[in-house]
Structures are given as C-alpha cells and as structure tokens.
Specification:
alpha/beta, Aspartate Aminotransferase, domain 1, 2 domains, seven-stranded mixed sheet, 14 strands
Length: 396
C-alpha cells in the first residue's frame, strides 16, 4: 500500500461524482447564511426549530461559561459530571416522560455505546436496512449477530425474529425518522414484535425529537408509546440547536449502559455550557409553541405546492424533504444550479444513500418563511425541466 493507491481511489471517487467537499460557513445557522463567502438561502441545516442562535440559548451558554469555564476536562465517571449535566439529564427525563436519562457526547457515540452495552456474542440485532451509519457500526462493534431487514418490512422482520427463537438477547433497532428519506418507522408495530419475541426496541429519534408529537416531544409522543422494552436515543444538535445526545428508558437498562458503554466511560464530558444552553432550548420548546406550528405549516406548504415532472418528491411529514433524482452527475448539476441562484441544498450521494438513489436533501426549519420556500419551489420546478427534461431521461 502506497500513497499512490489513495490517489487512485480519490480519482475514482471524482470520476463517479462521489468526491465530497466541505463548505465554510461564516456566522450562525439561519435561513440565510454565508457559505464559502457567498450569501445564500440555506435549506441544509438540521436546526429544525431555529434554536441554534436563539438569544435565550446563547445567553444561557455565556452565563455557564462564566460559571464553569470552557471544558469539563474529564469524563463523567471521574470529575467531569457537572451540575449543568446533571440538571439537563433530569429535565430531559421529565420532558419526554422516561424514568432515567444519560447524556452522551454525540449521537454517534450514544448509539455505539447503547448497542455494545446491550448486545454481544450470541445475541442478535435486527436492524432496518436504511438505519443511520452509527447504528450499523454499533451493531458490528457489538459482535452480536447482525441481521438487516428490508426497509420498514414488518413481514420480513417477523419471519427473521421467528427463526431466531432462543438465540440469546434480541434487539430491534431503528431510526424513528430516516435521515435521508424523511419517512417515519412503524414504531407501534415494531413494539408489538418486540413484545411477541421478547426483544428490546432501540429507537434513534435524532430527527424526530423536537419535531414529532403534539408538543414536539418526539416519536414516542407522536405514537403515544410507553414500554419498559423501549430504549430511546435522541440527539441535541438538531431541533434542540446544541450538541450531544441522550439515551433514556428503564432505570436498570440506562444504569447498565452507564456502567458498561465504553463511549460514555472513556471520553471527556461535553462542555457544561452546552448542557446549560440545551436546558434553555428545552424551555423555549415548551414555551414557544408557535415555532413548531410554523414549521409544520411550512412542511405542508412545501409538500402540497411542489409539483415535479421528472424528479420525485416522496411523501414526508417531517422537515426532511428528499428530491429524488437518481444519478450522481445530474444531482450535482442540480445542486450547482441552485447555488447559482443563491440557494444551498446539499446533494446526497452514495455511500450515504444506496446506488442509483442520489438526491437533494431539502431541510425545512422554523427560521424559513413561506416566501423562502416559494422561491425554492420555483427554482426546483424550473430546474426539473431544464436539467432533467432531456429526451431519453429515465426517472429513477
């Protein structure tokens, strides 16, 4: 293996239109942002409620910086578990209605920690085919048997579970909202299967927390689900506008994760100022219900108004609205043409999504206005015909 080998691999990515590049953002997350020095309307952020730059959230972080300093400087299990962390765990538990909560530094680390703590050799993890990469990596690292069922296919999952009777501990693992498609997992039916086959149901609610449910409390509220079998994870860097993640559920399950998850035990705790800021985010989420109402109005407006001839807009009742295009080159051309119109919508290509399903991922936030979405709808409609309406183009 030489440096030349990596050069060849990078060249192959470029030829397949799969080479990725970072964008430099100047300033806070908002509907309008400076991206690579150019002012654009941004439809790319997971800051679904527009809280990342909310004055109350920023002020809470600044107060906590003066009280605690910048870093926690140790793991939670040594000397890094500060009062701000402890209070946030309690408030998160109260907010979602689960008995015990544990903070993690990121959603990726949370899912890695959950699955490696709850499953091992001789156990079996049943995972949706479109689960996020961190769930797949956690399953692989656990060394449990890793079985993937077709996306939201309950019949196939039922058959797979039936074949595994007596095969150690069983976990059904799923995203609640699938991050690249915006669709929602059939959680009530998955819980019934968990009960039938004596399994735990691990739910990644990264894109549902703050968005789903009557009060925005997430997928459990959306479906009115309660069960000791549920192990619930959500991130704090999306709708909550901050950083980090948490797992919640039965006291003994969460305590076991605390005692055994290596991604919790052996990493420095998040800065306490972030925990304090998230507490402020939760207060805004509870007090300012108009923010969530506005987001849902925009989601409905976008889905009802965008009519495409060639690209496809699957139904999504979440803030994630995928514009399905198919091939990498056309998807990149679409994104580039939007940037020429001062609009930033990310192009999503393999391996993030399956081959042949490249897409634009429109992310709607409460910081947008109806006019912002109208302008995007107009641009998408024009480019749909201009870029994809060529003779012989076959929609994927």
């Amino acid at each position: 293996m030489s440096v030349h080998d990596f050069s060849l691999q990078l060249s192959e990515l470029a030829q397949a239109d799969q080479l990725r590049a970072r964008r430099i953002i100047d300033g806070p997350q908002d509907a309008s942002m400076l991206v690579d020095g150019k002012r654009v309307m941004a439809y790319a952020s997971n800051d679904y409620l527009g809280l990342a730059n909310h004055p109350k959230v920023v002020e809470a972080a600044m107060r906590a910086l003066k009280r605690y300093g910048l870093g926690a400087a140790a793991s939670h299990m040594v000397s890094g578990h500060m009062r701000a962390h402890h209070e946030l765990e309690e408030k998160l538990g109260d907010y979602i209605g689960l008995p015990k909560t544990l903070l993690f530094s990121s959603g990726y680390m949370a899912n890695m920690g959950i699955l490696t703590a709850l499953a091992g050799r001789g156990d079996t993890i049943f995972a949706d085919k479109l689960n996020h990469a961190c769930l797949n990596d956690g399953a692989l690292l656990s060394r449990a048997n890793f079985k993937r069922y077709p996306h939201c296919n309950l019949v196939k999952l039922d058959a797979m579970l039936a074949e595994s009777k007596g095969a150690g501990r069983k976990l059904i693992v799923t995203d609640a909202v699938f991050s690249m498609d915006g669709d929602i997992a059939p959680l009530p039916e998955l819980l019934k299967l968990a009960e039938t086959y004596d399994a735990l149901l691990v739910i990644d609610d990264a894109h549902g927390f703050g968005v789903l449910g009557y009060r925005g409390k997430g997928s459990l509220e959306h479906f009115n689900l309660k069960s000791e079998r549920i192990v619930y994870m959500a991130t704090l860097g999306k709708a909550a506008g901050g950083y980090g993640a948490f797992v919640a559920g039965h006291e003994d399950i969460v305590e076991w994760i605390l005692q055994s998850a290596r991604t919790y035990i052996f990493t420095t705790a998040t800065p306490p100022a972030i925990a304090a800021a998230i507490q402020a985010s939760l207060e805004v989420m509870q007090e300012d219900r108009e923010r969530l109402k506005h987001l849902r109005m925009l989601i409905d407006f976008f889905g009802d108004s965008l009519k495409l001839q060639f690209a496809k807009l699957p139904y999504s009742q979440t803030a994630i609205q995928p514009i399905m295009i198919g091939d990498n080159a056309t998807t990149m051309a679409f994104a580039d043409a939007l940037r020429e119109r001062h609009m930033f919508v990310p192009a999503i290509r393999p391996p993030t999504v399956p081959p042949g399903t490249s897409r634009l991922r429109v992310s709607i936030t409460a910081a947008h206005t109806a006019d912002d979405l109208f302008d995007l709808i107009t641009a998408l409609t024009d480019l749909d015909v201009e870029l994809m309406g060529n003779v012989g183009y076959q929609r994927k």
